[in-house]
Inverse folding.
């Protein structure tokens, strides 16, 4: 495919096409593609990640979970390494939400270093988003419960990225959640 920049743009283009028409749950209905781009940006700018596989996986991390994309399609377009990372961070939407959340906590410590980076940046993006504005229909209690659950997931990702972990620690501390 050529340069790493071209590979990254291909992943962004693919994700944008897949998430076309999707919106975040915020009151403004922000285009969904802002989320994976934001996750990749956090990795590049705040964690200093230059690993093209991690950055592509960040852009693609919700495509299988939230669109009609398959893992085979990811592998055919972006390779086995990207597919493996995307697979590690993808929830099985056939399971009940409570089970998906439990599995994220359980699987966090044994995830690959690349998947841990994507997961940390994803949580950081989502928590910052929640601090910025509450999604439609969410109570303050539901926001706090999300923070508590995210803290449990992040605890299993420790030792991966000091800058991201520090940013998350500050967010949790602001919410009265300990280490």
């Amino acid at each position: 495919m050529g340069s790493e920049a071209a590979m990254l743009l291909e992943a962004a283009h693919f994700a944008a096409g897949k998430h076309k028409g999707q919106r975040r749950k915020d009151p403004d209905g922000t285009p969904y593609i802002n989320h994976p781009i934001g996750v990749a940006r956090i990795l590049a700018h705040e964690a200093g990640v230059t690993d093209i596989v991690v950055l592509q996986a960040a852009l693609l991390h919700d495509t299988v979970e939230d669109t009609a994309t398959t893992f085979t399609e990811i592998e055919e377009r972006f390779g086995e390494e990207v597919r493996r990372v995307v697979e590690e961070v993808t929830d099985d939407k056939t399971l009940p939400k409570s089970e998906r959340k439990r599995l994220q906590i359980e699987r966090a410590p044994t995830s690959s270093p690349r998947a841990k980076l994507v997961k940390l940046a994803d949580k950081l993006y989502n928590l910052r988003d929640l601090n910025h504005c509450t999604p439609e229909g969410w109570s303050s209690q539901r926001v706090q419960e999300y923070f508590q659950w995210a803290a449990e997931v992040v605890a299993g990702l420790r030792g991966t990225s000091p800058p991201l972990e520090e940013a998350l620690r500050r967010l949790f501390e602001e919410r009265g959640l300990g280490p």
Summary: The mean pLDDT is 95.
